[in-house]
Write a structure and sequence with these properties.
The chain is mainly alpha-helical. The chain has helices at 7-14, 18-25, 29-37, 45-55, and strands at 3-5, 63-65. Helices cover 45% and strands 8% of the residues.
Length: 80
């Protein structure tokens, strides 16, 4: 899937430490690290909103998408 998490670049631009961001948002450093690395399959809208509020940004500043026509034909992954 060509959706990429661009949170790292925003953290650097804002000059904030990931540890401080996690504390402000109310998530663990591990959860934030997993999101930053793109190793999660989803994120709660509430968490996304908290990240945006803490960073003064919009969701599109945290995520990027590169078009891939296969995204229209591949079936969804089964939920666990």
């Amino acid at each position: 899937m060509p959706v990429r998490v661009t949170l790292d670049a925003l953290i650097v631009r804002k000059g904030i430490k990931a540890r401080d961001l996690a504390a402000e948002v109310g998530i663990s450093e591990t959860q934030l690290s997993l999101f930053r690395s793109g190793k999660v399959k989803g994120i709660r809208f509430r968490t996304l909103a908290r990240l945006c509020a803490a960073l003064g940004c919009r969701p599109g500043d945290l995520l990027d998408y590169e078009f891939d026509a296969d995204d229209l034909t591949q079936p969804d992954e089964p939920e666990d």
